[in-house]
Amino acid sequence: MYTDDAVQHFGGRRQLAQALGISRQAVEQWGKLVARGMAYRLQVMTKNALVVDEAKYKRRRK
Questions:
Q1: CATH code at 18?
Q2: Overall number of domains in the chain
């Protein structure tokens, strides 16, 4: 799940952080992808409006 998609769904980083009960700074630390555990929480909270794509979280091996 991309951070930008979650931010857009909630209307901003502050609102996303409030919905999760975390700080805006914690959201900033995610980078491009929502932290995996938080992504699953968001999937449940949004009743699958936001969905975890596990393939995005798999590390590529060299």
A1: 1.10.260
A2: 1
With 0-12 / 13-18 / 19 or more C-beta atoms within 10 angstroms meaning exposed / middle / buried, residue 36 is middle
What are 33's two structure tokens? 């992808």
**What residue numbers bound the domain in which 48 lies?**
3-57
Structure tokens at 26: 């914690």
Tens-digit pLDDT profile for residues 3-61: 999 999 999 999 999 999 999 999 999 999 999 999 999 999 999 999 999 999 887 55
Alpha helices by DSSP H, 1-62 = 3-10, 13-20, 24-29, 36-45
Q: Phi first, then psi: give them for residue 2, nearest 5 degrees.
A: -80, 140
